[in-house]
Amino acid sequence: MYEGPEFKHCKVIDPKADAQGKSSNNPLVKCEHCANEFSAGAYRIRGQILGIRGRGGGNCLEAPQDAKDLFQAIENEKAAATSKKRKRDDLDQLTANDGSATAPSTAGSTGPVQIGIKQAFSNSIKADADAAVCRYFYAEGTPFVKIESPYFLDMLQKVALFGAGYRPPPLKRLRTDGIDKEKALLDKDLEVRSASHRTATLEYCACNV
Ligand SMILES: [Zn+2]
Prior knowledge:
Strand content: 5-15%
Bound molecules: zinc ion
Low-confidence stretches: none
């Protein structure tokens, strides 16, 4: 305890009391240079040596320059770390907002609501995907109504599930094994559906005779 460089410049007189003898969270210290007594931790000792108003026991007029330089460097480092952390927190908040809340820098302002980085990124990816689908339909002369095909949607969802590295089967496999396998499954599926449809129709007709 009391091991920082600050305590090389201030001696701890009473670890539990302030200058008036009342109990204090900070120890009562005495400056080695100007003999000023005040209660302080490292933060307030730096304030006293650097003469920062309202921080520590007033301005130390006797502090050597090397102590001032050292404490100023510590202050600068802490200010830089705080600023870096604030920027990181702002960015975290901005990405966590997902566009649902105002970015911290505009909090309280009446300006337009900024969307989060994640939301903007996601909007741009969706716009790209939509454009690619439209391009495919137009370039290949695919009937537009096919966009409502459940098989088309199923295909997109399975491709998305696979991820960005998906490559479709090569032409040779598509026109042979790929199609044969799917044709068999699809025919069977349609058979089951039409059988159940036929049963339902027969039941409906029987009930309404
Ligand atoms: Zn002093």
